Amino acid sequence: MYKKMSLFLILLLSGSLFFLMAGEKQDLWIKAAAEKNLEKRLEYFDDYKAKFGEKKDENAKFLYYNLAQTTMQLKQFEKTIEYGEKTLTFEDLGDNYKLAVAIWLSNAYNLARKDYDKAYSYASMVIDTGKSLKGMSEGNERIAKLSAGIDKRYIAPAMRIQLRILLAKGIADTQARMDIIEKAIEAHSLDNSNAFPRRTVLKQSVELAKSNKTIEAINAIEKVVDPENLNLSEARLMASLYYRKYSKSKDTVDKDKAIGFYEVAYNKKKDSSMAVKIGQLLSKKNKEKAIQYFADAYILSKLDKESSAYKYLQQLWFKDKAKDQTPEEQEAGFNQIIEAAKSRLGHKEEKVEETEETTTGN
Fold it and tell me: How far is the CA of 355 from the CAs of 2, 40, 342, 348, 359, in angstroms?
């Protein structure tokens, strides 16, 4: 009887302890998961790990997932690597969790250890897993919801990490540069809200053009810029590339495009040298318009009679456009051109009558 009673008490105590431990375990997990303060949250999960983490239960993979996530948010990258790689050891870990952990690991290896190979490899895991998930989403509503936002949240960031790594390692040859541009274009197509891929394409395309790959440079840039909404530097770059192409091809289409982009740049910022350039390109095709740009350039050069703008303007007007007019008509027409340019540019200055004293200084 005594032995039976003892056994019963032992079983009762064991059962009570089990339920008490289960209750404590659940409470600690909920407390950790609900905590907003990252330091406190990590403290609770560390406590959970110390008490229950070595036990193989349904929470184990999520424990290490949360530890990796929290340490990543706290920028404790070495711990992120430890907990992230532990998370990936669970065979039943869903692909959506793998995506998040792999991007954390890629960032952590890149920022903390400068281990570019590991960082690049984990970024590749993100890209491959993300594309696989997207491919599976066709016809599957559940997976489609899961894969929504994968491009911006995972694949594009992973590509940006790889771009930074490739640039940090250095570019060995033209083909390597073209590969970087291709990756940057794809990253931009997935998420154009981040400027880094677009800037990479622009910068590397300039270098590409220097290697006699002007056409490839133009094609690349046109994939990442909006031709209807170019900024000043983009317009100048496109103009210079099309002019470079025209210089070799002598194709009037390239010349027209160069003029168009130069005009976009000029309209964004009035510049004497830019006006001269446009005038030169227009001097045979549209002399009247070329004269306007040379006149603009002359005004922008502060009426410098030694400037190339003034010399081009005089040449095109007096010796070409108005060559059949009388000297008086030529002079009157020239003055009208200058006044029109001043008005166009909003140029204001006090008029000084040119007497013999002002011109000779006597």
Answer: 134, 85, 22, 21, 6
